[in-house]
Amino acid sequence: MTLPLILAGVIAFGITMYVLLDGFDLGVGILFSFVRNEPDRDLMMHSVAPIWDGNETWLVLGGAVLFGAFPAAYAALLPALYLPIIIMLIALIFRGVAFEFRFKSERRWIWNLSFTLGSTLAAFCQGLILGAYIQGFRYANGQYIGGTFEWLSAFSIMTGVAVVCAYALLGACWLVIKTEGALHETMRSTALKLLWVVLGFIMMVSIWTPLSQSAISQRWFSWPNFLYLSPIPLLTALTAAGLYYTLRGDRDHGPFVLCVMLYVLTLGGLAISLWPYIVPRAYSLWEMASPQASLEFVLVGVAVTVPVILIYTAHAYYVFRGKVTHTQGYH
């Protein structure tokens, strides 16, 4: 009973780290097209170039643990999500190629477009996957029986746009830390505007989800669950208020920290809504778990790799701390 819970926690941790870390560099790419000044675009790319590929390690970790610890869930989820996952991976490839070619090409507009579209499309596909996952899929005897485009709905499109805006806000808060001057002030102003958009999407998801799924409504609004879970929306509101006031102030790190807290709270709310299912409304963690020996093998691997990734990530962020400049960057 314990090992599936621990490894599900590792998957949740990996996904959270990916959303927060790769989320802000995808956000920088989303904002890229709204900045017309090429030197400022250079600064934006310099701010994430040394760390973007390390951020994606968390996505690989989550997928690998899912495959090793919950192979039945892996086999059940992928047929339902093949198309948006493939499109997301292609978009991430285009974005990665842009890092290598933009500073070497005479026709930068091609790689500017690749960086922007790759980042935006990858974020949108992740939102589509999230929306489809929340809604759930149709299964019979452990096999997916839905259609090729069952993941596409009004709700998943809404969550796709929401994730694009959420990553853009995170990217703007990151650039508040990493830049100075006019670009710094532009990103602070942009983050203030995006904050209202993101809060609107959080409210939409919070209302739409329980209205469309009675099980989630029962989880949140039945007594005494309502009392026990009420701190989460209250903390979310307080965090959003704090983010608003720090963006209006002159602190550089505060907006990013509070934005991270806001997203952790929303992901926590999502986990509460879906618990204990790993395949929503179909199969629980324990139904999809590997045999005991396999779980122990995966746990040993996780115990070795996760600390290494954490140490590497912390070291990379420490080495490349501080403001970016035009004279120091990725070439």
Give me the secondary-structure topology.
Blueprint: H1 2-32, H2 38-48, H3 52-55, H4 57-69, H5 71-101, H6 108-135, E1 139-140, E2 143-144, H7 154-178, H8 181-212, H9 214-221, H10 225-229, H11 231-248, H12 253-274, E3 277-279, E4 283-284, H13 285-288, H14 292-319
Antiparallel strand pairs: 1-2, 3-4
Helix content: over 70%
End-to-end Cα distance: 50 Å
Detail the poorly predicted runs: none
Please count the helical segments: 14
General description of the model:
- There is one protein chain.
- A hairpin with a 2-residue loop joins strand 1 and strand 2 (143-144).
- The model has no long low-confidence stretch (mean pLDDT 88).
- The protein is mainly alpha-helical and 331 residues long.
- The chain has 14 helices and 4 strands.
- Helix 1 packs antiparallel against helix 2 (38-48), helix 1 packs parallel to helix 14 and helix 7 (154-178) runs antiparallel to helix 12.
- The strands form 2 sheets. A two-stranded antiparallel ribbon has the order 1-2. Strands 3-4 form a two-stranded antiparallel sheet.
- It has helices at residues 2-32, 38-48, 52-55, 57-69, 71-101, 108-135, 154-178, 181-212, 214-221, 225-229, 231-248, 253-274, 285-288, 292-319, and strands at residues 139-140, 143-144, 277-279, 283-284.
What are the defining features of this structure?
331 residues, mainly alpha, two-stranded antiparallel sheet, 4 strands, globular
